[in-house]
């Protein structure tokens, strides 16, 4: 290209920027090409600029699936906007694909719509005959589907700067997207320096060159350029994903023992703090198995150092026996369950809210537990601090249920100001009050004081067997009844301290959606869209699943219909053999039906995808018989 | 005791009376009459008294089984938890509470069957604690099922035609685990040797694994009576660095064998060469083995300011 025509080109192409409120961008590639690093960086740069952001990773279950396969799609979705963003949104606006095959899975999942820009690596057009044919066929199909296809010589452009394009394409794409969306290049450069800080100057420079090259390419060759206005934030902010927030929460709760066994998607929470926790007075213990991991945490908690164990569904299954012991022996303990698809090893990298009933009821006998579910990245941080305090106050295991969507979702939130009051006080080694027994259950609250080894006169033998107030093995039936009553009453005591859930929307209406955990943003966005178009729909979001927040039944009574929205399995009436009588409900719906005796319906599915506002809106339309889409 | 008010040194211990054996006794043990666990309990209580272990700083951790009722009979802190899971719990206690004396009471089913995975790793962690394997080679609490250490061919309720697999040898196995640091064997019916073994185990700076061959008078009467009565059934391991009992007690043993407990290879060979009898004594000791509890305790007592700084430093990474 001659210099003169290039300058004319850039004048006509690059200058006009269309202002938009938000955009959904996906980067999809084969595993190992750095799509996630690219998307996370884009998210962080955007958050730093002042945009609202939410990211969702698209992960194949295999570490290295075959290249250019339809199942092998690995990538990331970045939704960014002027306002706060709370979920992954609906159809993508802009997609960068490092090969065209990986797009099929996303198309099947209805991630795109006619008009979505697909920026596709075009080196496959000149590859082997077979690849070339597949490529041409795909381009043809995508065109027919109405996508806006732009073929880009990504590899060719990258090879001008590095010898291995596979290792550099992601930062070139970051540059490309930075130009398309008018991102602050200085922040992008900082991000690259931070990512490659340990790799040396040469690597940093290569990636900076790639960033600039991608940026220039977009400026000179692409027709679409957008700006997303930012809003000025008050005070300091941080941007991180849910697992990173959990890890900072563990540190800020002053927890000294974090005991775990590697499992996706929980493990990255321990990676985030692996080095830093030791400076904050704690240690990560990687046990020999899930059972040992919780056993170790139980031991540390018995010793007075309330511990946390982090796991995912299959880990919870293994830990169940110890969870029962912790309930029976009243051991304070924080259990983080970053849920994934199930049952069994299920969908290791994908989202599901499938462990609710397992943690509520999964134990030998009646084992009442305290269960919290953060609904935002920020809550992932604060709930750990809350969980430890509740665990110690109520001498009970406390579950914190997050999921794969929260684990990898990146969102900015106000920087927490670490408060030393969040840390536990010094170990109580004072003399045990004479006459006080190890399980001196308060008749009103069921709560008893916790003797800690080292306290003179407090000696007792904790046991998982039914026991009396002195922890002696119970041989009388009334002691078992009394112990069970006390353990159960603690939940009522905690429940009495809670406030009713806030209603998003009006207090009365035709339809109330009820959610828990990571679905909050999508539910509330759907409700907002529906309300804007005149629907009488509201939502509530439960943060305490056990004990349940008070006043729920009263709230339900003000709506013609109540329906949960959750990411787990439920039968649909009308499917083969499924009737109103034998239908199996989604998990929160089961629970609410039992608690309230109200005919709570549910909308749920297990595609391994976060809930999208559009799908929820479609369901609201169906329920209300109204057209609500813009 | 001393009628001066010391302001130059701490003599507060002088005001405490010496603890007697009754200070370690809790409720009456409910084991069967003639069960070897009674003797072990008494010897452990004696050790606590002789070492003047503060009861409030001492924890007995157990799993499930006959032996695992042990903590209920001690007037110390106790943890009677889950079948097979005593070792991870004990590790969790010791990791951040180096001030506590930790004893683990486990049985042959508890340690070598359901808890075998934890056993391998507890040896490798090598935290300072005494692990007493009460090995009666039978499941007692659930009424005579085959245990992993039951002799081949023994008739049980689950194998009425005789057990079909050779037993696990707990000493042989432990000597094969990585980072092993103390392995000893004794029998419940030789109290002097039992006590000397407990003492040696307590003094060891890492995890002291002691297998106590134990009589079960209800389900294993036929197996043990001949051994208890036969003076040739036991081989006494002798060495100046081993379990030392007085010469009078030594005279009661017919089979004596010199064994240097610092030699791991010889210790492993010894298991093979003494299989016809029950060797008792110290098989192996290495005081220098890596201790995980030292790692666990290395950063204790960090100030609130330093903690806050560490958290803020990490949070800076995420700052906008």
Automatic annotation (TrEMBL), chain A:
GO molecular function terms noted in the UniProt entry: oxidoreductase activity, acting on the aldehyde or oxo group of donors
InterPro entries on file: 2-oxoacid/accept_OxRdtase_asu, PFOR_II, Pyruvate:ferred/Flavod_OxRd, Pyrv/ketoisovalerate_OxRed_cat, Pyrv_Fd/Flavodoxin_OxRdtase_N, Pyrv_flavodox_OxRed_cen, THDP-binding, Transketo_C/PFOR_II
SUPFAM superfamilies: Pyruvate-ferredoxin oxidoreductase, PFOR, domain III, Thiamin diphosphate-binding fold (THDP-binding), TK C-terminal domain-like
BP GO terms, sorted: response to oxidative stress
Domain Pyruvate/ketoisovalerate oxidoreductase catalytic: 32-216
Keyword Oxidoreductase on entry: yes
Protein name (database record): 2-oxoacid:acceptor oxidoreductase subunit alpha
Species per Swiss-Prot/TrEMBL record: Marivirga arenosa
TrEMBL record, chain B:
Occurrences of domain Pyruvate ferredoxin oxidoreductase beta subunit C-terminal (ranges): 253-294
A Pfam match: TPP_enzyme_C
Keyword terms, alphabetized: Oxidoreductase
UniProt record, GO biological process: cellular respiration; small molecule metabolic process
Molecular function (Gene Ontology), one example: oxidoreductase activity, acting on the aldehyde or oxo group of donors, iron-sulfur protein as acceptor
Record Gene3D superfamilies: 3.40.50.970
Domain Thiamine pyrophosphate enzyme TPP-binding: from-to ranges: 64-211
Keyword Oxidoreductase among record annotations: yes
Record carries keyword Membrane: no
Stated name of the protein: Thiamine pyrophosphate-dependent enzyme
High-level lineage: Bacteria, Pseudomonadati, Bacteroidota, Cytophagia, Cytophagales
